[in-house]
Amino acid sequence: MADHPLASGASTAIVASTVATAATATSATGATGGAQGATPPAAGIEARFAVDYAGFRLDVDLRLPGRGVTALFGHSGSGKTTLLRCVAGLEPAARGRLVVNGECWQDDARGIQVPTHRRELGYVFQEASLFPHLSVRRNLEFGLRRIPAAARRVRLEHAVALLGLEALLERMPDRLSGGERQRVGMARALLTSPRILLMDEPLAALDHRRKQEILPYLERLHDELDIPVLYVSHSPDEVVRLADHVVMLGDGKVMAAGELHATMARLDLPTAFTEDAGVVIDGVVAEHDDHDHLTRLDFPGGAVWVQRQPVALGRRLRFRIHARDVSLADHRVEGTSIQNLLPATVTEVVGADSPAHVLVGLDAGGTALIARITRRAAEQLVLRPGRRMWAQIKSVALLG
Amino acid sequence: MTPEDWSAVRLTAQLAGLTTVLLLIVGTPVAWWLARTRSRLKPLVASVVAMPLVLPPSVMGFYLLLLMGPQGPVGQMTQALGLGRLPFSFAGLVVASVIYSMPFVVQPLQQAFEAIPERLLEASATLRAGPLDRFFSVVLPLARPGFLTASVLGFAHTVGEFGVVLMIGGNIPDKTRVVSVAIYDHVEALEYAQAHWLSGGMLVFSFVVLLTLYGRRRGNVGGGVG
To answer: Is residue A60 packed enough to be buried (19+ CB in 10 Å), middle (13-18) or exposed (0-12)?
Structure first.
């Protein structure tokens, strides 16, 4: 995906001016808002919602960053889609307050409830929800035609190129594959030049192959959009691949919210107790070894060697190190096949999902690691916070 | 066919046309409300709208006559407004027909509206379409087959009504004497030839209408909403 012809150049600027514009508009809204005008318009998203349904209650109070991808992550029934719909104004029963990059969309205390069609947002539904009576082109133009010409920051050709829709424009939605439909849905949402993009499990209805087909497009959106994206997902894979921030929801409540890498490294969250537990690291491509077909990825506190990647030096690559792939030694082991060894300090030791195992939190010079080892090994090694160890990394999973 | 017969045909077409137009205007919001509401009043309204399906036309006509008559509340209102009395006038026929044919327009529309996924309306709202805009750019095009069915059934059913017309309109040539009443007159007078012309015409008309409707439906498979 990194060397895709569209990944560089002109299209980069697509929504670049959004944040600046939002800031200007903000002061205007703030002024009309009157009474509480003392607080300066802050970038970011303030979302406080309470909704009561039979047998389910959503109650959240969140401050989210005003840019980057924030994953709303949780099991089905955790309230993540309801939260997204609250942001879009699609849950009329929701009480609370919502401010998106300075613009107030809901504040029950002041009687403000901006209807959905007046909120500058883009929404991608789980099912693409294309209009069946309109061609792909007319679907794309639906939102575009409804915003003032001066507010159009995304041109049709840009969105079409970004999502690879050139060949589909004249087709009717029933002649598209699921993945194609979803791409059209994303382009259609982008063409309203939104201040925020809301995506409700856009990949959930797709099979594995279609997912792989769309993920690069999502990553490209992430790289090129300068607006906040709220991305609902129950798939840890998607979250670690796309998100910068993560909000974990359970039973309608926020269990954790924070920066992705830090949150994934936490040992007090349910994510730590799954087969999938592990950290996410952003590495920079620092060296290619063409003789051994390896690539070195540097990150704060260390480096790992992975299979040779067709990626230019200096580019960022995200990867995961699963807790199950990290073992520990109290000295630098010689004569091992494991190539990636990192000195690290133990930060905490907690029980794992099975009574036979523990999770060990590690600090490798500024980068967090988690190791899942047997309780017996932990006792033999006398693992305590502060103890210096060597982390032996058996495998590194590249994302994207 | 006598000039009086032609006059009856023309009057019938006018009545059915006007009734259909009025029904589409009145019936669309009613059908939309019935299709989308979660109100407890829904069964009540749905039942009232569907009453003409089961009531004998004479019962409908009787009560409408009382309502619109000089002593009835509607009658007193129309008189107070200077509109005169509705019974035994073309206007009265139109009002009665609108009520009598209501379910034939509302029900197909309601079904068409119910088939439109809520998700599409939400999608159009997130694409900046306001409520009216949503109706005209999403609901109307997707419900087009429903509108066609509703119009055809509303028109054809109004053409075919007899009992209500007789009760409300009577039998005044050029004013309230529609084809169905004219046929009755001819049969009463043993004018079988004229009765044949009009009845045969109705038979062919009804058959062609239904054939068009069902033929179109078959050709329209795949126009589903998904």
So the answer is: buried
**A90 reaches B (C-beta below 8 A):** yes
Q: What domains are defined for chain A?
A: 5-264 (3.40.50.300), 278-399 (2.40.50.100)
Contact status of A115 with chain B (Cβ, < 8 Å): yes
All residues at 6 or more sequence positions from A20 whose CB lies less than 8 Å from its CB, including other chains: none
- Mean pLDDT is lowest, of A66-80, A107-121, A202-216, B177-191, for A202-216
The token pair that represents A288 in the structure block: 């290619």
Minimum distance, in Å, between the CA of residue B108 and any CA atom of chain A: 19
pLDDT value at residue A169: 95
Check B126 against A147: CB less than 8 A apart: no
Dump pLDDT digits (tens) for B63-108. 998 998 888 888 888 888 888 888 888 888 999 999 999 999 999 9
Give residue A27's pLDDT. Answer: 36
Query: To the nearest whole number, what is the mean pLDDT of chain B?
Result: 89
pLDDT digits (tens, 9 = 90+) for B180-222: 888 998 999 999 999 999 999 999 999 998 888 888 765 444 3
Nearest CA in chain B to A140: B127
Inform me whether the C-beta atom of residue A79 falls under 8 Å from chain B C-beta atoms. no
Query: How far is residue B112 from each of residues A7, A285, B124, measured CA to CA in Å?
Result: 44, 57, 18
Instruction: Name the residue of chain B whose CA is nearest to A118's CA.
Output: B128
Q: Model confidence over A368-378: pLDDT tens digits? A: 999 999 999 99
For residue B192, tell me if it sits in a domain: yes
Q: Which residues of A touch B125 (CB under 8 A)?
A: 89-90, 115-117
Domain CATH number, residue B117: 1.10.3720.10
Please judge whether B125 and A116 are an interchain contact, meaning their C-beta atoms are less than 8 angstroms apart.
Answer: yes
| Partners of residue A73 on adjacent β-strands | A233, A248
Q: What percent of chain A has pLDDT over 90?
A: 58
Supply the pLDDT for residue A274: 77
Owner of token pair 């009577």: B170
Taking one residue from A and the other from B, the number of pairs with CB-CB distance under 8 angstroms is 69
Return the sign of the alpha-carbon dihedral for residues A325, A330, A336, A338.
positive
Count of domains in chain B?
A: 1
- pLDDT (tens digit per residue) in B19-54: 999 999 999 999 999 999 999 999 999 999 999 999
Contacts of B220 in chain A (CB under 8 A): none
Beta-carbon separation of B137 and A125 below 8 A: no
**Residue of B126, B136, B140 to mutate, interface with A, max A Cβ within 10 Å:** B126
Instruction: For residue A88, give the nearest of B203, B158, B38, B119 by alpha carbon.
Output: B119
In one letter, which amino acid is A286?
A
What mean pLDDT comes out for the span A61-81? 91
- Taking the CA of residue B28 and the nearest CA in chain A, the distance in Å comes to 20
Q: Kindly provide the ipTM of the predicted complex, given to two decimals.
A: 0.78
Instruction: Assess if residue B224 is contained within a domain.
Output: no
Question: What are the two backbone dihedrals, phi and then psi, of residue B44, each rounded to the nearest 5 degrees?
Answer: -65, -50
Which residues span the domain enclosing B32?
Answer: 3-39+53-218
Residues in chain B closer than 8 A to A119 (CB atoms): 126
